[in-house]
UniProtKB/TrEMBL annotation:
Keywords noted in UniProt: Cell inner membrane, Cell membrane, Ion channel, Ion transport, Membrane, Transmembrane, Transmembrane helix, Transport
First-listed, main subcellular location of the protein, grouped into a coarse class: membrane
Function: Mechanosensitive channel that participates in the regulation of osmotic pressure changes within the cell, opening in response to stretch forces in the membrane lipid bilayer, without the need for other proteins. Contributes to normal resistance to hypoosmotic shock. Forms an ion channel of 1.0 nanosiemens conductance with a slight preference for anions.
Domain Mechanosensitive ion channel MscS C-terminal, chain residue ranges per copy: 201-283
Protein name: Small-conductance mechanosensitive channel
Species the sequence originates in: Brevundimonas terrae
Length: 311
């Protein structure tokens, strides 16, 4: 048996190269498996941290609510309570998210660098949201209204239920939930209908031109003074406020507590009308007369009276 030495010498380096490659591939695979295992462990720990963060945020907000509820300033003004509780919840969630990202290998310095570089784009994209947050802080500082106050925002009337970082939640008389962005609230005129302890009731009546206006004023004044919700100070006021086309307008002013304003206005409107009827004082209202076309006394235009032209 003969052995070809040149062929054997050529085959040996080839086998060694294959063996080296297989060894290198085995090392790469081993490292990949280690990295995959580490990533799986880190991902599991990150998920646990995320769940713990949500639980901690809920617990922290609940604890903050209980602690702040015992302070006198918050008891008098519940507007601050919901706002601060939400801030605590957001802070805890942000801390937890940073911990999750660090566990996944994302460095905090990298996050800050990325946020710093993209701050302009993020600011432009979220300018509406950020303006709502800034407006919410200003509303909390300026206190134009509090939880429970009845306010008028550009014609939308409702009772304030909650002030959050982004919105103001209200409920109207029909128990409809109204959500207004804080930036819009701060930009519009805010009318706090319950911001004062007392409010003035204004009811307008119209009577005929032939009536005794002093007698009309006295009837309305006596009607208001007889109402148990009307305050004695300031005194009831009545006066002629307008001369209309077919009637004279007489206005009644009286003062009540803010919470009695709506019901007292309705009561005085009804009782004032009944008192005027009882005193046989005329309350004029529009009359419509139906006339047939061509009836005597009805004027026609030239086009209507013109004879038809022949072709």
């Amino acid at each position: 048996m003969r052995i070809n030495l040149p062929a054997a010498e050529t085959l040996t380096p080839t086998l060694q190269a294959i063996d080296g490659r297989l060894s290198a591939d085995a090392v790469v695979i081993a490292k990949a498996m280690d990295m995959l295992g580490d990533f799986a462990v880190n991902l599991t720990i990150a998920a646990i941290i995320f769940v713990v963060t949500l639980v901690a945020a809920k617990w922290a907000s609940s604890a903050t609510r209980k602690i702040l509820s015992r302070t006198r300033s918050v008891q008098r003004d519940p507007t601050v309570l919901g706002f601060l509780v939400q801030i605590v919840r957001v802070i805890v969630i942000l801390i937890g998210m940073i911990a999750v990202l660090q566990r996944l290998g994302v460095q905090t310095t990298s996050i800050i660098a990325v946020l710093g570089g993209a701050s302009l784009a993020v600011g432009l994209a979220l300018q509406g949201t950020l303006s709502n947050v800034a407006a919410g802080v200003m509303l909390l500082i300026l206190r134009p209204y509090r939880v429970g106050d009845v306010i008028d925002l550009n014609g939308v009337v409702g009772s304030v239920q909650k002030l959050t970082l982004f919105t103001t939640e209200m409920s109207n008389g029909n128990n409809n939930k109204i959500i207004v962005p804080n930036s819009k609230v701060l930009a519009d005129v805010i009318i706090n209908l319950s911001g004062q302890r007392t409010r003035r009731v204004e009811v307008k009546f119209t009577v005929g031109y032939g009536e005794d206006l002093n007698r009309v004023r006295q009837v309305l004044e006596d009607c208001a003074k007889a109402h148990f919700r009307v305050l004695k100070d300031p005194e009831v006021w009545t006066g002629v406020t307008a001369l209309l086309d077919s009637s004279v307008q007489v206005t009644l002013h009286c003062w009540v507590r803010s919470e009695d304003h709506f019901q007292t206005t309705a009561d005085l409107t009804q009782s004032g009308k009944e008192a005027l009827d009882k005193a046989e004082i005329e309350i004029p209202f529009p009359h419509q007369v139906s006339l047939n076309y061509g009836q005597v006394g009805v004027l026609r235009t030239d086009s209507e009276t013109a004879a038809p032209q022949k072709d």
